[in-house]
Design brief:
82% of the residues lie in helices and 0% in strands. The protein has 84 residues and is mostly helical.
């Protein structure tokens, strides 16, 4: 039963990045976004990914991998649009 809650939570957390990515892409502006927030998330997600790989907790491995990809995508958008 609690595994279902965990999987649903992982889905919500995984997709929580998508609206910000879409908004940033459409508006092509990052003036109100803190890059330090995203730069802090990246090593945190990476360390959590390494830990969950060691535990072989595959749903979490997928979740942290997705979070890292979204964070990198956002940072790419940030550095692309920061001067516009």
């Amino acid at each position: 039963m609690f595994e279902i809650f965990g999987l649903i939570g992982i889905l919500f957390l995984g997709f929580s990045f998508v609206p910000q990515l879409i908004k940033t892409y459409k508006q092509k502006t990052v003036k109100d976004i803190s890059v330090n927030y995203w730069l802090t998330l990246l090593p945190g997600f990476t360390l959590c990914l390494l830990y969950t790989i060691s535990l072989r907790a595959w749903p979490l491995v997928i979740s942290y991998s997705w979070a890292i990809l979204c964070t990198l995508a956002f940072l790419g958008l940030y550095f692309k649009y920061r001067r516009k």
